[in-house]
């Protein structure tokens, strides 16, 4: 863990993602970008003419989609090159250029939606019925109808499109500070040698069995965030104001309502999540007590949350071992799914290693017509194994969708995305519980599940509450200072973890390091997705083929249906509290299993 972090050019090719499959080199990207700039004006001839004939309408929409598809590839290449080495100024500029192209396309196509919505719905329906090819856009037209009240005039839409790039400044500044400029100090590692803290190493250090190590890492990281607290407060506050500006411009009652309506999720799904999780906080408090007992400490601190409860279990996993585990674990999904997954490993979907300047964390990305790439910052532990399974869940979802749907529906909403990824984690957990004989390792995995549940359902719901709270504060005319953010965040931790936990003052600064607060009401979907996945994995394991078939057809649906409807067909109804309650039962059962095993 204390080995030197490689420079980007030192990473072996086999461990890097195959971005050359999108553009063979940077020159080709520049050429295509240049062509794109010239071709983007081809949409102009349709301006003001969408109601002229079904042919014009079809050609205009096809042109728009064709340009968007091409931009998707340009953007994917540029942002992933940037992410692999955020300190590389050439790629930073390339990403800027891609954002610029996106802004040009949005300006050029800003007339399409308002023109469609300005049309008499009967005229639009008649045009659609006239031409078979337009039937393929039926669901898109239906979505448009639902937006009718929130689309502005052509001039206003154009203005908003132009403002969009400037509105990204807060999150870009956050990214630059957090990923490139911020430097963490060195601390004494487990072997007594100095180790420099990085984003990638922080989690591993917090998992250390040596309390001094995890305490030192915890304190060093949050002291660093504290020293930049005003800058971080400015970037977060800027983001929140931007969210609200856009929501108010579009006449929504709140930023939250605007964000959820984009994917047609009723606010009640969000409220119900927060309510149901709040009702079940005593289960989290019970887990805190169990942890305190297992660690045999007088006081349980925030830096004691990530270390395994089970002592002396060596459970390191190399990347090669992880590959095998993931392949075995998804077996219940059938041969075809497994083969697609193997192909992902062979075809360099994954950028495996951490290197200097690489974006922290992990994600699955890509665009229609590219491979569904995965960014990792590999460390040899169980956490990375589960993350790999998770990201492959996303990438396989993309793979199924893109090979089954036309471009217009070749994407999926984030609300369903987390179901596909978390399901793989649930299968991996099940696989471990079935195959592990070693009591200590079994305990480790049970604890890992409880910890994952804490991190996904409880923690993300806490994030969701925080997000709702800071937006509401600004919407009510308040402001977000560093001290205010810190106090609110700290208080939420007190509520969530309860009386058996010492809520260290440092945790108050955690809001500063969470990239998801820049994603506009994204995180609640981790919790709803997790709950849906828990319910679906149960169906797949108990029911077999019929449940697998429902799930695979869910993966192929893309965005051709509303997410709530897709999930209903797959087997879970998210408009009820039921899936969240089921997930809570699973948490309680696992607590029981763990306590029982500990007593034997
Ligand atoms: Zn995910």
TrEMBL record:
Record's keyword annotation contains Nucleus: no
Cofactor: record remark: Binds 1 zinc ion.
Pfam families: Peptidase_M3 (PF01432), Peptidase_M3_N (PF08439)
Reported cofactor(s): Zn(2+)
InterPro entries listed in its UniProt record: OligopepF_N_dom, OligoPept_F_C, Pept_M3A_M3B, Pept_M3A_M3B_dom, Peptidase_M3B
Protein origin, superkingdom: Bacteria
EC number: 3.4.24.-
Biological source species: Alkalicoccobacillus gibsonii
Keywords: Hydrolase, Metal-binding, Metalloprotease, Protease, Zinc
Phylogenetic lineage: Bacteria, Bacillati, Bacillota, Bacilli, Bacillales
Family listed: Belongs to the peptidase M3B family.
Domain Oligopeptidase F N-terminal: 115-184
NCBIfam families found in the cross-reference section: pepF
Job description of the protein: Has oligopeptidase activity and degrades a variety of small bioactive peptides.
Domain (Peptidase M3A/M3B catalytic) ranges: 205-585
KW Ribonucleoprotein (keyword) present: no
Record-given protein name: Oligopeptidase F
